[in-house]
Structures are given as C-alpha cells and as structure tokens.
Amino acid sequence: MDTRNEQNKILLFPERLDAANSPKYLEQYMKIVDALPKDTALIGDLSETNYLSSSGLRLVLTIAKKRPDLRLIHVLPKVYDVLDMTGLAKKVRVERQIIKIDPITTEPIACGSNGEVYVIENDIIVKMFSDKTTEEEIYEEWRNAKIALTLGVPSAICYSIVTDGERLGIMFERMETTSLASLIYADYDNFDDYAQRFAALLKEMHEICDPLHELHSVQEAFTALIEKAEYLSNEEREKMNAFLEAVPERDNVVHGDFHPNNIGEVFGELILLDMAEIGYGNPVFDFIASYYDLVLSGATVGKEHPEVTKRFFGLEVAELAKLWNILMAQYFADADDEKKQFFQETINWMLGFKLLLFPVLHPNHPNETHERWIRLGKERFIDHFEELMQRIPEIDQMIAGALGNH
C-alpha cells in the first residue's frame, strides 16, 4: 500500500517509546494531529520501533481517540504482540511488518482465481497472491482470518504476511488436503458423509455471532457495490437497496464464498479457507453464493459451461447439485419438501441480486459475459421483485429456526 502520497501524513515512531520520551513525542505528535485536515490519512510508521512501554501504549491510545482512523504500519512482531495482548490491536488498525521469505521454486499445490498455494515447510503453507489483488485486500484477508479464528470459526491458523520479493502472500498452517472437493474426488464412496459434514460446517459457522462487529458488515459491502454499478437504472438501484433494507440485519458469521474448494481438513476437522469475503450479517447471503457455485454455475453461467465448472471443482455438475441437495436436507432437517422447494426457488430469485453486481465484482470478464449476468439478474431479481420482497420474512425465519434463534 503506497503511503507516500500527499493524502497521507506519516508519523515516524522512534526506536523506543517509554516513560522517558513518550511525553515529548506525544506533545510533538498532537501538534501535527491538531493541524491535520480531516481528509488526510494519519499513519504511524513503526518500522524502527522495537519497544513500547505502557507510556508508549498510552501515546497510541491518545492519538487514536483524536483520530480513530489512525493506522499503524510496519509493526514488528514483538511490538504487535504487545498491541494485541493489551487489546489496542482491535481499537487501532495495525499492519505487521512484511516478512521476507526465500524465492519459491516449487510447484503450487493448489491454484485459485487470485493466486497459488505453496508448501514452504512441513507444516506451513503460503498463499501467494496475483497482481490483481491489492495490498489492502491482502491485509483485509489476513485480518479477517485472525478475527474468525478468535470468534471460534473453524478455520486455518494464520501467521504473517510475507513477500518473496515479487509477490505478497499469507502464511498459514498446512492442511491435510488441498480442498474438500479433492477429498470427495479421492474417496467418492463416502460422498454422502462429506456432504453432510459440508452442511454441518455451514451451520456451525452460522451459529457463531460477531456481536462486536469486528468483521465487516455484509449488507454494507453490498450497498457499496450497488453504488459502483453505473449500468443500473435508478429504479433497479432503488429495488436493490430496498431488498437489502428488507433483509433483517443479523450478527451471524457469513463466509461469502462457501463452496468445496474453500474448505480443507486438519486433524480430521473440516475448516474454512479464503477469508476475503467473511463478514457478519444474514446467513441468507451464504445460501445465495453457494447456490450459484453448486447449482447455477455449471448450468448456465459463471464458470461459463459445465466443463469449466468441472475443471474448477474437480466434480461433475450433477455431483455439485447433489451436494446442494444434501446441504438443504441437513440444514433444514425439520422442514418438509414443500418448504425446501419454496426456499430454493426464493434463493434462485435472490441470486439475481448478486448476478446484477457481478460486473463490478468481476470487471475483467468480457462485456458479453457482463451482459449475460445482467440479463439473468434481471430475469431472477427484477422480474420477481414484488413476490420476493414478500417472501423475505419467511425465508429469514426458516434460517433462524434452523439455527435455533427465532
């Protein structure tokens, strides 16, 4: 992330901040902060700082009270541990110093749309991101992974942000397999068991809440995307915002991209991977995303056609649909077939809401793909808008009932 432009003001912290020098630096920094325009970002550079006493921590807290947008960068691991232990890392945005690793010469064990995964030690892997992913997005995924783990979400242990001199990456614990999809492929006789564990994982995650809203709001993220969708008419934009307002806001953890390639296994436990989109909100948004990946992508759009979907997941389109059906059966175990059909039909319409935002989410796809997404989005969401809005309370109650929190 470039911190050198005129919209940033950098405070270069000293090697030590202790009782002897903290008052002097606080006076100096507060003069700068008081004179700083509100539209100028305030950044504390701790690349040289290797010690923070309680006085130094108080200095950080005092500045943060004046400027809640304060961001600390290049924080050394031992200084980060102090900030984290005292809780300041939750109050102030902290970005750890990027650790340099040797150039990677091995082949990746997994590839995704935004990078590759490599083994660098027996029990350590690193996800190296493509140049399409910004430093801001990488830090966000790193931060999300740490918060998710502390909330109790079954997820990989996340270590540091690293660089091999060319790309940035995140270091994680090594998993026993690259994905749930590969587990299923290698042990197909146990498909139903894996599918049931897949469903149980989604439900377990949704039962976890983020009451302090440490993660981002899923609904707010969608609101921002709607603003960027310049191809929408005013009426279409109004309907999409009305839909978001009608979906009850909840504190449940929502992954945002729940499919078998984003699930691994450690010590026999399924865990979630790829925390780029994880947030808090209504679990209905996970059903929308999963319905697209498991049902729609291989049928008509998204991965473009069944063969591409099969290459992406390593599973047949019919097998992905079966995974969805088992997910529905287990998640809504107490619902009858009519209710499940009602739910799936409504999710299909709700998917149109997200399809209308795909050109913003995937701007590098061809225009003809964007046009197809928009057309399918209108057919689902816009054409069924009135009935869809009437169904929202019942859909929400079905999910709440399945989670035991009516």
Characterize the structure shown.
The chain has 406 residues and is of the alpha/beta class. Helices cover 49% and strands 17% of the residues. It folds into 3 domains: 8-96, 2-Layer Sandwich (Transcription Regulator spoIIAA), CATH 3.30.750; 110-173, Phosphorylase Kinase, domain 1, CATH 3.30.200; 180-403, Aminoglycoside 3'-phosphotransferase, Chain: A, domain 2 (Alpha-Beta Complex), CATH 3.90.1200. It is built from 16 helices and 17 strands. A hairpin with a 2-residue loop joins β9 (115-121) and β10 (124-129).
Q: Which structural traits does this protein have?
A:
406 residues; Aminoglycoside 3'-phosphotransferase, Chain: A, domain 2; 3 domains; 16 helices; Phosphorylase Kinase, domain 1; alpha/beta; 4-stranded parallel beta sheet; 6-stranded mixed beta sheet; Transcription Regulator spoIIAA; 17% strand
